[in-house]
Amino acid sequence: MRPGVRCATLDGYVGLARSCGLDPARLLADEGLAVADLAVPDTWVPAAAVARLLDRSAEEAGIEDVGLRLAGLRRLATLGPLSVVLRQEPDLRSALGLLCRYEHSYNEALRLRLDEAGDLATMRLWFEFGEPAPTRQALELATATLLGIIRELLGRQWEPLSLCFTHPAPASTATHLAVFGPRLRFGHEFTGLVFHAAELDAANTMSDPLLRPYTDQLRRALGAPPAETVTGQVRHLVEMLLPVGRYSTQQVARSLGTTQRTLHRRLAAEGTSFSSIVHETRAALAERYLTADRWTLTDVSERLGFTAPSAFSRWFRQEFGMTPTAWRTTARASAS
Q1: CA pair distance 192, 147, nearest whole angstrom
Q2: Are residues 75 and 182 in the same domain?
């Protein structure tokens, strides 16, 4: 089943499209959606269809900031019940952790990851649609929304040290600079925000301790987030080790402080295997890298741990039913 997204993501789209001289009903219908769908925020629709809708809207309107304009109409309530819990998290660290753990409750294709390295923290974003789809407008919408959420929690004056996108800069960066500020970077290795790690402990200005018992009840109603598993730990390690060609079971087991035999046994208990994790991780990373123009197919091949681009192409065709070049071309063409 294709990953979905709540229709609340498109709140304000109809009015925005009309203001840009577009026919929102036609554009929605072209993606198998309807204006009536948008009237129910909790309706789920294919995430790739929404991504194509945003990029096609930008293309037809002749503007490059549709995602940012839509983000300007966002409210914290767009996240649904999760927004109520988010308001009462005590600090930024717990709020961002909540967004990462419960991303499935508002967008099944969006991936968020919070990393700390020394004095710096990084919040990265990417999409895994499972099919060729443009990402530029969707990434800008998600990043601007994330920045808006942090500013609601810490204060409107908050600024990251750097705000990065993998895609190239638009012809005009006026709107982007107005939304993101002067520390904006395009053509970067990842999409996301970089800020001082100490800010993770900054207090949430919206939090009211007296309301926390009630939000705990709502959190339980949301259901438990995916638990941290051995599978998840191995997947994270494989992702880091693939580019350097050291993703063996021996290396991963050593990093986890266990033996290869124990590692295989634990993965089997979770219904998977090391080879399956490597395969799935490669598939997810391939999609992420192919949507970014900054990497050639040779670059992608090396990052996925293949010895030659030809081996990568053969594997990709078996996995996705098309060549990497065709995937990249289809993703670009689907916007226009």
Answers
A1: 10
A2: yes
> What pTM did the predictor assign?
0.85
Q: What is the pLDDT of residues 95-138, one digit of tens each?
A: 999 899 888 888 999 999 999 999 999 999 999 998 999 999 99
* Domain coverage including residue 246: 230-333
Residue 241: CATH number of its domain = 1.10.10.60
For 278, residues 6+ apart whose C-beta sits below 8 A from its C-beta are 238, 242, 247
What are 77's two structure tokens? 């309530």
Q: Say if residue 208 is exposed, middle or buried (CB neighbours under 10 Å; 0-12, 13-18, 19+).
A: exposed
Tens of pLDDT, residue by residue over 283-309, are: 999 998 998 878 899 999 999 999 899
Instruction: Specify the number of domains making up the chain.
Output: 2
